[in-house]
Amino acid sequence: MRIIYALLILSILVVIVLLVGSFIYLEKTTHENLYYIIKTNGRDVGDIEIDRYVTERNIIYKSKVGKPYETGLNKKDIRCELDRKTSAIKSYEEINSDGGIKELLYLKRENDDLNFLAIAKSKFAYLANMKIKKDALFFDRETLMTLVPLIKLYNFKKGGAQSFDVLKYDIKLLPPSRDSVILTSIRDEYIDMDNKKIKTECLTLRAKEMEQVFIWVAKKDHNIIAVEIPDKQIYIKRTEKRKKFIVKDYLLKDLLYVSQKISFISKKLELDSVLTRPRKAGVYPAVILFQGEDAIDKQNYGIFIDLSNYLAKSGYVVLRFEPFHERSGLKFKSISIEDELGAIESAVKLLKEFRFVDPERIGIIAHSDANYILPSFLAKGPGIRAWVMLSPRRLTPTVDTDSENIKALLENICRIDPNHSKDMSNSQRLTLDILETSAKDRKNIMGKKVFLKRVRDIIQLNPFRDMKDLSIPILVLLGKMDNSCSIKYLKEIEIWIKENEYENRSLVSFRKLNHYLGALIKGDTLRDYYKIDKEALETITGWLDKNLTNQ
Questions:
Q1: Where are the chain's structural domains?
Q2: Ordered alpha helix ranges (H), 154-281
Q3: Which residues share a beta bridge with 448?
Q4: Residues near 422 by Cβ (< 8 Å), separated by ≥ 6?
C-alpha cells in the first residue's frame, strides 16, 4: 500500500513539474521584453522598454520611452493591439507626460473604419469613421515600438523591397494621415551589443517626404538590435542593462537677490510659485511671468529663470507660477481661461500684500499664446500697469494651420494623402458638434473623459476688439526665426502697434531669434533649456524701467 501511495505522490509531483515547465515555456514563447538606449550625437539621452504579448486572438505591444534631458513632455507610454491572424490594428494608445501633465493619442478600429481622439493642452480633437486600409499599421520613425510590427511582417525569405500601409500622426490635434513605407534588406553585418557580436541583417526604411532610416535585426529571431536616423543624428541600440540617468534642472543663483517657493490660493486651488526679489531692503516694482499653453512648469523651458535672474538684479520683484495644481498627480491639463485669469488676479493680490512691493507698479510679461487671453482681462483694470508680449502667438481651438511650420507640414501631408484635408474638416466639424450639443464642461468620448470648457472659451476670444480699451504701455518682442507663429496674425499686431504708437506701444524684432528668444542649450547632466538672448533681456528691462518703474 505504501508503494502505491509513493507512486501516486511521485506522479503528482511529475505532473506539477510538467505544468510549471509548460507555463515557463509558454511565457517565454508568448512574451518578449526588450531594452534599448537612445543616443543623440553620441550622447546617451534616453531609454526604451518594449513588451510583446501574444494571446489567443491578439498581439499586444507595450512600450515605455524616457528622454529625461528633452524639453517638454519627455515620457511616453504606448499600448498597441493588433489582430493575431491579420496583423490589422485594433487600437493604439499613446500618452506623453512629464510631471503632472499628460497628453493623449487614441486610435480605435470599428469594423473597417478608425476612430480618433487627441487630448493636448486642455484642448481636444475627435474624428469618427476614418477610412483606412485593412492592414494599415501606426508608424512613427522615432518611436521604436511602431517599427517592431513592420519587421515582424517583413518576409525575410523573400527579401528585397516590400511595401506596407501605415498611419502617421505628424501634427498634434489633427487626424493621422495615410502613407506607405518600404522596407528593403541590403546586407548582413555584425553589431556589438554589450560586448557580444550579434549577426544581423540590415534593412532600409523609406517613404515619401521622409529621410531614410537604417534598421539592424538579429538573424536568429529578427528582433531589432539597432536603428539609425541619420538626419536626426539618432542611434538606438539594444542592451541587456537598464541605464540610470542623472538629470538636473537649470538654475541660477546670485548674492544680489533671493528666491523662495511660496503657495497662494486661487479659486480654492493651491498654486505653487517662485518669488525672486532683490536682497537689499526697499520697495520695488513687481512683474508677473505668465507662460503659454506649451509650458509644462513655471520655468518655461528656462527663459523664465533668465528673466527672474536678470530682473531681480535690476531691481524688480518677480513672481512665476503655473495656473494649475502641480501636486495633484498625473492628469490631462484641464484649465479654463477663467482659471488662468483668476490665477493672475490672485497673483496681483498676493504681490500687493508684500511690504517690499510697490502696489502701484505691477507689470506682466506673457509668453506665446498666453498673450491672446489677456486683453479682456487687462481692460478691466486689475492693477497691472505695463504689459510685455514675448513671441505672441494666436490661440486656436485645435491647431493654428496658418502658422508657418504647420503650413509646411500640411503641404507635405496632403501631397501624400489627398484625403487628409477632408479628414481635418470632418474632425473640426465633429469637435464643434460635441461642444454645441454638450452642456457640461466634461464629456466621455471613446471611453476617455474630455475637458470641453477651454475650447469653448477660445472660440469666444477676440483680442483685437478688447485691446482697443487698453490704456497701459505695451511692448511686443518678436523673433524673426520664429516659425511657430502665423505671419498673418503677427502682421495684425504690427498694424495695431503702428496705429497706437503714440500711446507707449512699441514693437521690437530680433532677426536671429526664435520663439523662445534664445538658443537651445544641451549639457551633460542638465535638462535641455533655452538661454534667452542678452539683448532681449536688456530691451525688456530698459523698457520696464521707462514705462513701469518711472511712471
A1: 29-239, 257-395+462-549
A2: none
A3: 445
A4: none
Query: What is the rounded CA–CA span in Å between residue 319 and residue 274?
Result: 6
State the cell numbers at 477. Answer: 518682442
Q: What fold is seen in the domain 257-395+462-549?
A: Rossmann fold (3.40.50)
Predicted structure pTM score: 0.90
3-state secondary structure 273-319: EEEEEECCCCCEEEEEEECCCCCCCCCHHHHHHHHHHHHHHCCCEEE
Mean pLDDT per 10-residue run, the chain (551 residues)?
A: 64 60 47 90 93 92 94 91 90 86 91 93 93 93 94 94 96 95 96 92 95 96 96 95 86 90 86 94 97 85 95 97 56 78 94 96 96 92 93 92 91 95 96 93 94 92 87 93 90 84 83 95 90 97 92 60
Q: What share of the chain is helix, strand, coil (3-state, %, to 5)?
A: 30, 40, 30
Which residue, among 172, 176, 119, has the nearest Cα to 434 in the 3D structure?
119
Q: Do residues 400 and 323 lie in contact, with contact meaning Cβ atoms separated by under 8 Å?
A: no
**Alpha helix ranges (H) inside 314-445:** 337-353, 375-378, 404-416, 420-437
Short-list 125, 93, 130, 127, CA closest to 113: 130
Question: Which amino acid type is present at position 314?
Answer: S
Question: What would the CATH number be for the domain defined by 29-239?
Answer: 2.50.20
- ∠76-79-80 over CA atoms, to 5°? 130
